[in-house]
Amino acid sequence: QVQLVESGGGSVQAGGSLRLSCAASGYTYTTYCMAWFRQAPGKEREGVAYITEYGTTGYADSVKGRFTISQDNAKNTLWLQMNSLKPEDTAMYYCAAASGTVCNIQPQTFPYWGQGTQVTVSS
After folding, report:
1. If 36 and its partner were Cys, which of 7, 11, 48, 104 is the partner (CB 3.0–4.6 Å)?
2. What is the pLDDT of residues 8-32, one digit of tens each?
3. Contact of 113 with 95, CB cutoff 8 Å
């Protein structure tokens, strides 16, 4: 009964910042991968960033240097700090989780998904 609930989305001007959160429940695995994805209308779902139980992170080239993925010490909250936002960052952002698998940013890897939170960046 894994449940992921995102929050923190909203509307911001280009160059601004937002911090997304993902609250996880029913997720007690000791080995895991958690990730953020995004999907704009008419576009493929895109992997944004991932983090392992060890704190190893990976980022899509499109957000490298601007976004930071992190988690709290209890491993029950996932964060995505988004800085220097661009209009092309506008999308629905999803939190995803997987366990017992290789960590990456391929959607097929993740069986658990949140409901999404909308991020809109205006120019």
Report:
1. 48
2. 999 999 999 999 999 988 876 677 8
3. yes
